[in-house]
Amino acid sequence: MFKGFYTVATGMITQQRRTELLTNNLSNANTPGFKADQSTIRSFPDMLMSSIGKTNAPAYQQVGAEYMSQVGALNTGTYLQETLPNYIQGQIYNTDFTTDMALIDGNLPQDEEGVMGSIFFRLEHPNGGEAYTRNGNFTLDGQGYLVNGQGLYVLNDAGQRIQVPNDDFRLDENGAIFVNDQQVARVGVSFAANPNRLLKQDNGLLRTEDGENLPTAYGAADVTFTLRQSYLEGSNVDSGRTMTDLMTAYRAFEANQKILQAYDRSMEKAVNEIGRI
């Protein structure tokens, strides 16, 4: 069997998964707070092929004598090594809804691996613990609690639900919520030193690997940020670049497909024609 079958197959699988990732990014181009996923493609280690056969010595000297000669390296294909969200802030735009909020990144330090930290709104997860999001498209439920689009409660800096009489409240840049000029809560904001370690879930939610809550961003060393009322953070998906990458992935898949068809025709000829001889 042609060893190229494996190389072509891994290439097709890689480009298919990359296409799915890019398609998901493109479909969320208008989702507030969405962070585009980025992929890393790597090749499997090459194999050094060698040929083992008889020597070119005279017949009387070839008894038990064999030699090994190098044929060359064989590429064993590619794979999608990992996918990581891009946490660069998206564009901030006005909505005129007082319950909408946007996080504005200030100074965010890097960890020992050189990864820049990120800040998130705190939400109460229905399975316990907290979930995190950059989507500040909030609203009020029937009891006056601040909730997100999936009905998860928005938490304050003490980890408690935020309740206000109505949507006639004021949010200052430090996260404090005022009703009739009296502070009633402060929007909970958490800081992740390495956001790449967070687990991405449905509806733009993030959770920690161990289920532990992230530390508060208020007062964290070298962390500065502001909040803005009646604004939302848009998706950081670059639609033009994503479409270009999507076409590139499609063409690469198509090229691998044609090579696979050529191998298939060669195999067919070997079976149907050479086999007769």
Overview of the structural elements:
InterPro entries: Flag_bb_rod_N, Flagellar_basal_body_rod_CS, Flagellar_FlgE/F/G, Flg_bb/hook_C_dom, FlgE/F/G-like, LlgE_F_G-like_D1. Pfam families: Flg_bb_rod (PF00460), Flg_bbr_C (PF06429), LlgE_F_G_D1 (PF22692). Its main location: other. One of its GO terms (biological process) is bacterial-type flagellum-dependent swarming motility. Residues 116-177 form the Flagellar hook protein FlgE/F/G-like D1 domain. The protein has 277 residues and is α+β, with helices and mostly antiparallel strands. The protein has two domains: 4-83 and 238-276, no CATH class; 92-233, no CATH class. It is 21% helix and 30% strand. It has two helices and 18 strands. The chain has a three-stranded antiparallel sheet with strand order 8-7-14, with no helix packed on it. Strands 11-12-13 form a three-stranded antiparallel sheet, with no helix packed on it. Strands 1-4 form a two-stranded antiparallel sheet. A hairpin with a 5-residue loop joins β7 and β8. α1 packs antiparallel against α2 (239-272). The chain is elongated.
